[in-house]
């Protein structure tokens, strides 16, 4: 890792044989030689007179960062005409005689007519200034830039082509960034319909075609075309139902309707697509993206190179299955059909899935064995994660039991009336439960999560997108196949989708128009990353499971060691495992305290001493680095408190609002703890491990939420529902309820319909 301008970066090995473009976005990080084409709309201001200096500075910074990583960067830039127009307008105004300006009056001076400026003259006046600006900006990053002006004729003359090629290679060898532009001061007007002239020739009529030509000539790995639109849409941007095309394949032109060209510049989107396809045919990967959006322009180039889903990626390799966007749409349509089924039909699907888990046990365990063997051979999973990855006959039996519980409790989940109000005569209002929509559940190393979450989504009528970890690929595949087999019972196979594409989690979190709720199931780091990446989509879950057990002075000797052992040692990797043990000061140096320590030693639990606990000991265990630590292993922190009140304060300061426990025989102290600890789950004389949807009788859970909005604690069917309002009237209008109207509001509460007793 090296640094420049206080920004760290990693020098990565970059090499590949040119001749074939990258098949997937994730491969773009291997691009060695990159051309960045800056459209006129990116480089110029909105008034088209002058440059967008802030954007340009950001682009130079990104190009410099990539150049200093060992890549070979080239820029094809517009902007000379706009820069020259600004300079010439200024010169014309200054050349007006002082007398004319004085006699015309201030108001007329403002309206002074500026003659239409010829583009070639503007280009001639702007080239030197534009290059001086680039040089000044690149100098800030200790990078040298060089200018090259070309015309279409330079590519038709074989000697000039060789000279240009040699010059560019020499500049790249010396770590210089070539800045290339069409020589607009002498370039002839573009010929109509001359974008493409056969397979091996592209006519340079604008900077799009110039960039494509250079990219192929220089055997470039990646061409990034920046414009003022997000990428390529299936219809003109801004029109109804226009959708951004994530990946564009040769032959897809027929499905696209092109709009007008950008506000400035020679080329429209059609020209960009033709140039991109020509470059793709020549072995160069292409991405068309927005270089003007203030929220992304500061990192758009680096995001593309990192393989993030930005703009439209041109690829020659079509995936075998649907895109993740198509899967989300299928899940939404399937979810709506699922919600329209009778409750008994949804329950039948879940019962069928439970049966399949036991009937197909051998196939499931065989697939899981493959995952375990691959994980062990690669050595990429820690022991706790391997344990989560493992399936067994007993696990599958428990899963089937949990699924049957979900089926039994799902009879009146969707469409249940929770409030009825008579607004006025013959005007009745109902609030009823409905599915949230499309859920995205992201989980690591836990294939048993797939049927659990699927059953909850089916019971609540939600469409579901599942993104599992690579380490559980074989297990997830067969479990998803069985889920779809169960869904086929009532023709809703598409309601649950497994994302198998090379989709990054961060890219999935940006699908705010397709996904209604994200539920992460995994490490605290995964949850934090998803919470950070989610753009406009709510995230349900918890980033940490820092669970406390407080041992009060009135604790029962028999209960203490049992509860602590179960909370810490039964499954230390679980999010509801004990992480910090709080002990009342009066219990230090008592037989009870010795029993606790002896039990932890026998169970091989590594102890970390909190600051107060360490102060009481002559030879203490290693002092804890942070009291806000989730160990996820056979480790825990012990800290001393002076009272139940101090225990509550400690939990509020260092806890994660997950699950916290008091062990005491004093009912008054226990009730104080239960009422004052602000966590999703608070227990008295019970293990933290009871914080679980199955143990709560929910059948299963999609996760444990520490949020204070919508759902909290283990989230079952109820947490996957929202409500809508149904108003039934008879020719009612609001004006009838005005001061002089004929009707009055009643607002009477009506009895709820009888719930299904089963």
UniProtKB/TrEMBL annotation:
Primary location: mitochondrion
Aldehyde dehydrogenase domain sequence ranges: 323-588
Gene Ontology cellular component list: mitochondrial matrix
Pathway terms, separated by semicolons: Amino-acid biosynthesis; L-proline biosynthesis; L-glutamate 5-semialdehyde from L-glutamate: step 2/2; Amino-acid biosynthesis; L-proline biosynthesis; L-glutamate 5-semialdehyde from L-glutamate: step 1/2
EC number, UniProt record: 1.2.1.41, 2.7.2.11
Subcellular location: Mitochondrion matrix
Record's protein name: Delta-1-pyrroline-5-carboxylate synthase
Organism from which the protein derives: Daphoenositta chrysoptera
Native organism taxonomy: Eukaryota, Metazoa, Chordata, Craniata, Vertebrata
Protein encoded by which gene: Aldh18a1
């Amino acid at each position: 890792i090296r640094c420049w301008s206080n920004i760290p970066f990693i020098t990565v090995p970059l090499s590949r044989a040119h001749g074939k473009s990258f098949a997937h976005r994730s491969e773009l990080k291997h691009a060695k030689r990159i051309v960045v084409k800056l459209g006129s709309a990116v480089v110029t201001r909105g008034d088209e007179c002058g440059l967008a200096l802030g954007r340009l500075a950001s682009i130079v910074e990104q190009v410099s960062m990539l150049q200093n990583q060992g890549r070979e960067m080239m820029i094809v830039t517009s902007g000379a005409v706009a820069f020259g127009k600004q300079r010439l307008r200024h010169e014309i105004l200054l050349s007006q005689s002082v007398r004319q300006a004085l006699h015309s009056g201030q108001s007329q001076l403002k309206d002074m007519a500026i003659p239409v400026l010829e583009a070639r003259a503007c280009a001639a006046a702007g080239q030197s200034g534009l290059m001086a600006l680039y040089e000044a900006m690149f100098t800030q990053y200790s990078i040298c830039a060089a200018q090259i002006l070309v015309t279409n004729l330079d590519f038709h003359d074989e000697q000039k082509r060789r000279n240009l090629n040699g010059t560019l290679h020499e500049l790249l060898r010396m770590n210089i960034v070539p800045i290339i532009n069409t020589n607009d001061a002498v370039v002839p007007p573009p010929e109509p319909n001359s974008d493409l002239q056969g397979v091996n020739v592209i006519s340079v009529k604008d900077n799009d075609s110039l960039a494509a030509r250079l990219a192929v000539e220089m055997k470039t790995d990646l061409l990034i075309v920046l414009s003022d639109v997000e990428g390529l849409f299936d219809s003109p941007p801004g029109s109804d139902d226009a959708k951004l095309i994530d990946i564009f394949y040769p032959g897809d032109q027929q499905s696209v309707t092109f709009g007008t060209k950008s506000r400035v510049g020679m080329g429209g989107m059609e020209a960009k697509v033709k140039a991109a396809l020509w470059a793709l045919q020549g072995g160069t990967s292409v991405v068309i993206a927005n270089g003007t959006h203030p929220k992304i322009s500061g990192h758009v180039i680096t995001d593309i190179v990192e393989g993030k889903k930005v703009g439209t990626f041109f690829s020659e390799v079509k995936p075998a299955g649907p895109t993740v966007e198509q899967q989300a749409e299928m899940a939404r349509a399937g979810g709506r059909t699922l919600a329209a089924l009778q409750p008994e039909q949804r329950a039948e699907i879940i019962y069928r899935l439970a049966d399949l888990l036991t009937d197909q046990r051998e196939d499931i365990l065989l697939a899981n064995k493959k995952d375990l063997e691959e994980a062990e051979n690669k050595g990429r999973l820690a022991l706790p994660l391997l344990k989560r990855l493992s399936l067994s006959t007993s696990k599958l039996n428990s899963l089937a039991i949990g699924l049957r519980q979900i089926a039994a409790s799902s009879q009146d989940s969707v469409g249940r009336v929770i409030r009825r109000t008579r607004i006025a005569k013959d005007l009745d209002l109902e609030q009823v439960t409905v599915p949230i929509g499309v859920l995205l559940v992201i989980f690591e190393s836990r294939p048993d999560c797939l049927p659990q979450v699927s059953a909850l989504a089916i019971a609540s009528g939600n469409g579901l997108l599942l993104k599992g970890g690579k380490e559980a690929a074989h297990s997830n595949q067969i479990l998803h196949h069985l889920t779809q087999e169960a869904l086929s019972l009532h023709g809703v196979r598409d309601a649950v989708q497994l994302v198998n594409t090379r989709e990054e989690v961060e890219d999935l979190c940006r699908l705010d128009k397709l996904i209604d709720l994200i539920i992460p199931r995994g490490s605290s780091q995964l949850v934090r990353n998803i919470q950070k990446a989610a753009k406009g989509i709510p995230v349900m879950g918890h980033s940490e499971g820092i669970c406390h057990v407080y041992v009060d002075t009135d604790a029962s000797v028999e209960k203490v060691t049992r509860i602590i052992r179960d909370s810490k040692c039964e499954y230390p990797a679980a999010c509801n495992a004990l992480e910090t043990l709080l002990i009342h000061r009066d219990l230090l140096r008592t037989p009870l305290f010795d029993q606790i320590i002896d039990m932890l030693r026998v169970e091989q639990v590594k102890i970390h001493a909190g600051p107060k606990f360490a102060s009481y000991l002559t030879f203490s265990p290693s002092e804890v680095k942070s009291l806000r630590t989730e160990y996820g292993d056979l480790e825990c922190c012990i800290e001393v408190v002076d009272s139940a009140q101090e225990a509550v304060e400690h939990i509020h300061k260092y806890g994660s609002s997950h699950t916290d426990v008091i062990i005491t025989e004093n009912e008054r102290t226990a009730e104080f703890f239960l009422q004052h600890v602000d966590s999703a789950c608070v227990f008295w004389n019970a293990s933290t491990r009871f914080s679980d949807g199955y143990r709560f009788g929910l059948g299963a859970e999609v996760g444990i939420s520490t949020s204070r909005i919508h759902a909290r604690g283990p989230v079952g069917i109820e947490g996957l529902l929202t409500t809508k309002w149904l108003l039934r009237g008879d020719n009612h209008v609001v004006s009838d309820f005005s001061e002089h109207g004929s009707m009055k509001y009643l607002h009477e509460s009506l009895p709820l319909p009888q719930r299904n007793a089963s």
